[in-house]
Amino acid sequence: MKSNLRKIIIIDDEIEVGNFLKHLLTLKGYEVDVGHSGAEYHELVAKKAYDLALLDVKLPDTSGLSLLANMKAHHSRCKTVIMTGYSTVKTAVDAIKLGANDYIEKPFDDIDQLEELIDQLLHNTATSEQTHMLELAEQVGFVFGQSGSMHQLLTTAYKISTKNVNVLIDGETGTGKEVLAKYIHQASKRRNQPFIAINCGAISEALLESELFGHEKGAFSGAVKEKKGIFEIASNGTLFLDEIGEASPSTQVKLLRVLETGEFMRVGDETIRKTNTRIIAASHVNLVKAVEEKKFREDLLYRLDVVKLTIPPLRERIGDLPLLVSHLLIKQNSNLNFSADVIELFKEYSWPGNIRELNNITKRAVALAEGEVAIITRSYLPDKLLAVNVHEHPESKKSENQEDFESYVTQWTSQLLKLWKADEDIELETVLKRVKELETMIGKEFVQKTLKETVGDRKIAAERLQISMRKLRYLLNEKGS
């Protein structure tokens, strides 16, 4: 008779671990088989299909990652969890990137958490987890788009968010490292505790130590009262240390002590205090190179780089650009859109400032175009973008508005001359109405052209056109202004 029980396979060379897990999970109503090597794994999976596999990283005849690859290739419906010691957490993170559903650390300090993970994997669908991931990303404004690398980043960040490990985020300036840090915090069990971000490169050494660890009254000039530091305020929350590579040697030493012992002292005090803050650090500089150049402590890097997440630059995920632009326009409460050829121009640009630069250019364009047009064209972009494909587009320095205007005038003139040469009756009122339309068009175009040249300064534009502000508003069809 076929069993309806959920089936679990455990592969661990430590007999005690296998026996313990089998006893625990059998009591919970699961059907459990245990093996102690890669060979026994292959024997078991050849006889039976499993719903969940718990695989140890280190085995006598193979590695857990090899078994993981086999499971994903031949038994794709089976959920997988990698079991690892603290020293091999990086390997476990690699396993997640290879398709493992999660990992757990040995020894199992929290049995309830272990049981919760197993129950969740066996009874929750992948769809519900995916939905939660996407909802959290939307909440914090983490736009990951369609690129495979960003989806992998989102998945890995979500998996490690619940682990009590430090994270190092690597990426160029403006890629969104703080947004990713917020995502990890919101996906973690610390979500209801404080999330505090601090830029280590934007604060002086003395002030940074005071911000991080707090100070006693009179500890230094200006310390008129005692102050709690971030490690106290965010004791059970998350601290995001941006530009960690800019921290001074003295601050690095104190950070190392906190990471190793969970202990710190306020500036000017000798009382040892405890903290349970999770550290997420980020840097746009290569910290390994900084260690080689004696600018960053190797032992501190080792403590920070338990899990490393790398955000790809915008130029490597250019297919996501339209979605990012749409997100930024919504964020600015703008009803404007960029023209199709502007989006193509965006795709050709290298974006050295990444998403931060895209955000600034979008804000600038919206500020200049708001109230003038519904579609943002090249004429609202900075020169550095217009210079991107000058060779491909010889007329790129000519604005689209200018081209549209010239086309309108040419067509209007052609139609008027055609009427003039015609040997038939002409309704003069219709002709004069078209002349009035041309007059309105010309007035508005000259005003808009001058506004662009004066970066939106209406007063200067009116002076250059030698008209009043009232006339300028009239020509822009702002008759009620």
Automatic annotation (TrEMBL):
CDD domains: AAA (cd00009)
Gene Ontology MF annotations: ATP binding; DNA binding
Keywords for this protein: ATP-binding, DNA-binding, Nucleotide-binding, Phosphoprotein, Transcription, Transcription regulation
Gene3D superfamilies the record matches: 1.10.8.60, 3.40.50.2300, Homeodomain-like (1.10.10.60), P-loop containing nucleotide triphosphate hydrolases (3.40.50.300)
Residue numbers of 4-aspartylphosphate PTMs: D56
Keyword set includes Chaperone: no
Response regulatory domain segment(s): 7-121
The Sigma-54 factor interaction domain, residue ranges: 143-367
Source superkingdom: Bacteria
Pfam family, one: Response_reg
InterPro entries, sorted: AAA+_ATPase, AAA_lid_NorR, CheY-like_superfamily, P-loop_NTPase, Sig_transdc_resp-reg_receiver, Sigma_54_int, Sigma_54_int_dom_ATP-bd_1, Sigma_54_int_dom_ATP-bd_2
GO biological process: phosphorelay signal transduction system; regulation of DNA-templated transcription
The protein's name: Transcriptional regulator
Originating species: Halalkalibacter wakoensis JCM 9140
